[in-house]
Amino acid sequence: MSGSLPEPRLSARLYGHQAAVRQFEESLSSGRLHHAWLISGPSGVGKATLAFHLARRLLGGSDLESPAGRRISAGTHGDLLTIARKMDPRKGQLKGEITVSDVQPIQSFLHHTATEGGWRVVIVDGLESLNRFAANALLKILEEPPPKTALFLTTSSPGTLLPTLRSRCRPLVLSGLDEADMSALLPTLPEGVLHRADGSPGRALFLAQDRDCLCAGLVERALAGEELDHENWVIVSQIAREPDGFGLLCDLLGETLAKRAREAAFAGNLHLAAGLAERVSQLGRIRMQGERFNLDKAEAIREALALAHQGRQD
Q1: pLDDT range class, residue 197, cuts 50, 70, 90
Q2: Is the pLDDT score of 89 beyond 50?
Q3: What DSSP state is assigned to residue 40?
Q4: Rounded to an integer, what distance in angstroms lies between the CA atom of residue 300 and that of residue 279?
Q5: CA-CA distances (angstroms) from residue 258 to 53, 240, 248, 283?
Q6: Average pLDDT estimate for 250-261
Q7: Which residues cross the membrane (predicted)?
Q8: CA pair distance 168, 139, nearest whole angstrom
Q9: What is the CATH number of the domain that holds 64?
Q10: What's the rounded Cα separation, in Å, for the pair 2 and 197?
Q11: DSSP β-ladder status, 87-88 and 93-94
Q12: pTM here?
């Protein structure tokens, strides 16, 4: 199951999200473009790709072969600053959070004259990863932005953000891509994987990593109430060693629990639905803590699987 997506910075075409583009274009053509845009939507749906698409629009780099387009692709455009989680060189993986030192360069960037005489654009990818100090620093920037400034902020969890931060942004809420766009983007992936991805190309690639169905099988056995024997715990250790194994297992488990919650609510069993929904929320917290603080993944997987047994008892 091979497949890949271009990096958001290098994407030549935007698939889907035309309603969000029209909303932005209307604001731009009015001459009163809002200074901060909160791009939210499911993980892997293309939020960063949209952010770079809009940045290219402002900076005159929509044509990737133009001088501005090439500078954006190379990350050398003087009027574009990108903030995201950085790589931890000691651990060889992304850091768990965006810190205040990561956000501080925005201040000096925005208070220098635009190198090409036009807009200055900042992209903050993964706003939910800001720690408290970084969030407050960004909030101060949003309160008094200089003229001809545009900030594109992406998040998969808008509900976790500071209300004051959300209130200073104009929302662009993204939904999943349709089947045609998904197939065009990822033609080598099986239809079953694309269907389960709910219109998220990133999620489709994520699900396709479970080549031997180790995560899916483990989730199925846990939800069936089977006692996890030594062989299953060996699988847990194997999944924990995979770069995205923990996240994939949490994703599959959350997907199944959420589906059961919807079915229970539709059947009128609100007590069961509420209990399952709470398990989904707990799972989200386990995943966030495990990924942000680099906790022991095998132990975090055990904790996640324990929710499956609790969910059966609701």
Answers
A1: confident
A2: yes
A3: E
A4: 15
A5: 32, 23, 15, 11
A6: 85
A7: none
A8: 8
A9: 3.40.50.300
A10: 15
A11: antiparallel
A12: 0.81
